[in-house]
Write a structure and sequence with these properties.
The complex is a heterodimer. Chain A is an all-alpha fold. Chain A is built from six helices and no strands. Chain B is globular, with a radius of gyration of 18 Å. Classes of the chains: A mainly alpha, B mainly alpha. The interface between A and B is medium-sized, with 29 and 35 residues.
Chain lengths: 251, 228
């Protein structure tokens, strides 16, 4: 018997706390947009393209945070019997948000690379590992959508998430070793380091906080929606039976 | 007990393979066809010679997808996997047996593909490089075989398994593809990689094989459990 706890008594997935969190995220985002686009100066070397960093760096940070959250929640879900489905839903929600932010990271990184290096993509270890990470978690999300009971899904996806933890260092190490044997791109290779003044650093930091708040907001809501989906899946038959019975009772 | 069960599963899988001849009649022709098509697509003899090692392993990976899918399709048909679970067959033994059978098939395929590369691409294998080539072929087959069995078990019995397996398997096998290709490139007499570096790649393959042998042996049983 699968037990599922209903997160809220109403059909809404928001509470006062999440509304506050969402508002904080929105206000901070607005500040990052204004500061990143208008208040901060252009970089000496990278000119206006440095503004992409205010989205790129926080996105990358959130993607990694999300995948670590998925791994930790998956491990807890696998080794704990009590409330394991709750942790599984957090793992799934976090992975979904992580894939979204990793996609943003890859797209913004490519755009920045085109402007700075003159090319959309370089076979650099960090970029290559990031691309593998992205594909791996797209696969993880596909596994979560497979048929089966919530418990089967929880176990299957938790094992896959832990295998990803094993896989990523191996992929990264092999790519580092692979690239170390090749000559670096000599024409387009420019120093990607950014020297930041005070306001630029503050905007970047604000971006990290804003994206973190948005991440938390997304994950809380997504896992509550997932809980409702599970509830509908497991109690759907009972509800249908009750409805048919009610129809049979003479008024 | 685990060893006996694993041996029984291993023998069963190879016996089915031997009687159906699926590897020889379908997978090997497919693999050779891919080798030929790669050469046509690249349309340059020096390029094909340079890329030969990578193409051999890429073809092995494509063919592995076909073999893994067939292997688990056989288990799924008539509920064979459910029967094995009902009989209380140990998950670790099942994993090791199936992985070993897959490795044998992959190794056979790699030998045929290397011969194909010698004939079609004109690569040259020096006798001194044979030890490196054999070790790479063995570890590369083990790596793909172990991961293939693990992920094949993960998606077996679910809808959409045909499309999911490549998506899951390809990123995980990237270290095997890179490592085995580079080591084989050295064995094929490529100038870019010396023997020391080639053996470093073999070391990486060994780490990969050890990691996924343990991971598979531990997690295969829980993966196959239908519910708890």
């Amino acid at each position: 018997m699968t037990t599922i706890t209903t997160p809220t008594t109403s059909r809404s997935t928001s509470t006062t706390a999440t509304r506050v969190l969402g508002t904080v995220a929105l206000v901070l985002m607005a500040w990052v947009v204004v500061s990143g686009l208008f208040l901060t100066p252009a970089d000496v070397v990278q000119l206006e393209s440095v503004r992409i960093m205010y989205v790129h760096v926080p996105s990358a940070w959130i993607a990694y945070l999300a995948f670590v959250t998925t791994a930790v929640a998956s491990a807890i879900s696998l080794f704990r019997r009590h409330r394991s489905l709750g942790f599984d839903r957090v793992a799934g929600a976090s992975a979904e948000v992580g894939v979204l932010f990793m996609a943003i990271t890859l797209v913004t990184g490519s755009l920045w690379g085109r402007l700075t290096w003159g090319t959309f993509w370089q076979w650099d270890p960090r970029l290559t590992t990031t691309a593998f990470l992205f594909v791996t978690y797209v696969g993880y999300l596909a596994i979560r959508r497979l048929d089966g009971t919530p418990r089967q899904r929880a176990r299957r996806s938790a094992i896959l998430a832990l295998l990803a933890v094993l896989e990523i260092p191996l992929v990264h190490f092999s790519v580092v070793l692979w690239r170390s044997l090749h000559q670096e791109a000599s024409v387009l290779n420019t120093d990607g380091d950014v020297r930041l003044d005070g306001l630029m650093l503050f905007t970047l930091f604000s971006g990290v906080i804003a994206f973190s708040a948005a991440f938390a907001w997304f994950v809380v809501h997504r896992q509550r929606v997932a809980a409702m989906e599970d509830l509908r899946l497991t109690s759907g038959l009972d509800v249908a039976l009750a409805e048919r019975r009610a129809e049979a009772v003479p008024s | 007990m685990i060893r006996r069960t694993a041996t029984a599963v291993f023998r069963k899988d190879l016996l089915i393979e031997w009687r159906s001849r699926a590897l020889l009649t379908r997978v090997v022709p497919f693999a050779v066809l891919v080798l030929v098509l790669f050469a046509i697509a690249l349309d340059s003899e020096p390029l094909v010679l340079r890329a030969g090692a990578g193409l051999v392993w890429m073809t092995t990976l494509f063919s592995a997808l076909v073999i893994v899918q067939r292997s688990f399709e056989l288990e799924r048909r008539d509920g064979a996997l459910d029967v094995l679970k009902t009989l209380g067959v140990d998950g670790t033994a099942l994993f090791l047996g199936k992985a070993a059978a897959l490795i044998v098939q992959l190794l056979t395929l790699v030998v045929i593909l290397v011969a194909g590369a010698v004939v079609l691409y004109g690569v040259n294998v020096e006798p001194s490089a044979l030890v490196l080539l054999v070790t790479t072929a063995l570890l590369g087959s083990c790596g793909i075989g172990l991961v293939g069995t693990l992920y094949g078990g993960l998606v077996s019995g679910t809808s959409g398994r045909d499309t999911l397996l490549p998506l899951l398997l390809m990123p995980v096998t990237a270290p095997v593809l890179i490592g085995a290709s580079r080591a084989t490139e050295s064995a094929f007499g490529g100038d870019a990689i010396d023997a020391t570096t080639a053996w470093a790649w073999v070391g990486l393959l060994a780490v990969f094989v050890a990691a996924f042998a343990v991971a598979g042996a531990v997690s295969f049983g829980p993966l196959l459990d239908s519910d708890s």
